């Protein structure tokens, strides 16, 4: 007699919050918007700081990439967030980083420190908030 053994489906464990955030930075640096969207929850809230050229809160992965990443690519050459220090507390990930780029309209470079606060749940970024010296960014944008 042959015994049938029921199959069991195992869910893969969710990635560690810092790993999810790191994948987001790598995708952004590579210009891989599909991979970046894959790190974002469907109901993500992405907030660019008041005073930053793209200030506001954007929702949905497509909304974030269209209103933030694609616009940065239109206005800046080589826009990159260089992540260097991660501070993790449960689902909260704070990253100290640096933005570097050259403004296409003025030809001026920007090199400014930034802090990002991410909230990661279930292996996806559900919230993001940016902190940056917006005056330095705007200075690079003006003649």
Spans of at least 5 consecutive residues whose pLDDT stays below 50 are: none
How many strands, which pairing sense, and closed or not: the largest β-sheet? 6 strands, mixed
Mean pLDDT: 92
Structural class of the secondary structure composition? alpha+beta
- Give the helix tally: 4
Percentage of β-strand residues: 35-45%
- Order the strands across the largest sheet as they lie in space: 2-1-6-5-4-3
Shape: globular
Q: SSE order in H/E notation?
A: HHEEHEEEEH
Query: Termini distance?
Result: 84 Å
Strand count: 6
Rg (C-alpha, Å): 18 Å
Give the helix level as a range of percent. 25-40%
Description:
By secondary structure, the chain is α+β, with helices and mostly antiparallel strands. Helix content is 29%, strand content 43%. It is built from 4 helices and 6 strands, in the order ααββαββββα. It has a 6-stranded mixed sheet with strand order 2-1-6-5-4-3. A hairpin with a 7-residue loop joins β1 and β2 (56-59). 23% of the residues are buried.
Structural features:
single chain, 29% helix, six-stranded mixed beta sheet, 4 helices, alpha+beta, 143 residues
Write the layout of secondary structure elements.
Elements: H1 17-30, H2 33-37, E1 40-48, E2 56-59, H3 61-75, E3 76-89, E4 92-103, E5 109-121, E6 124-132, H4 134-141
In summary, what is this structure?
The protein is α+β, with helices and mostly antiparallel strands and 143 residues long.
């Amino acid at each position: 007699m042959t015994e049938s053994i029921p199959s069991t489906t195992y869910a893969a464990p969710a990635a560690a919050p810092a790993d999810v955030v790191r994948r987001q930075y790598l995708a952004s640096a590579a210009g891989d918007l599909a991979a970046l969207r894959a790190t974002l929850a469907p109901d993500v809230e992405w907030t660019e700081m008041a005073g930053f050229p793209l200030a506001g809160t954007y929702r949905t992965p497509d909304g974030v990439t269209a209103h933030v990443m694609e616009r940065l690519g239109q206005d800046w050459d080589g826009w990159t967030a260089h992540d260097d220090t991660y501070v993790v507390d449960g689902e909260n990930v704070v990253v100290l980083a640096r933005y570097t780029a050259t403004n296409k309209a003025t030809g001026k470079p920007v090199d400014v420190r930034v802090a990002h606060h991410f909230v990661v749940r279930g292996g996806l970024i559900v919230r993001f908030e940016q902190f940056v010296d917006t005056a330095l960014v705007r200075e690079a944008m003006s003649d």
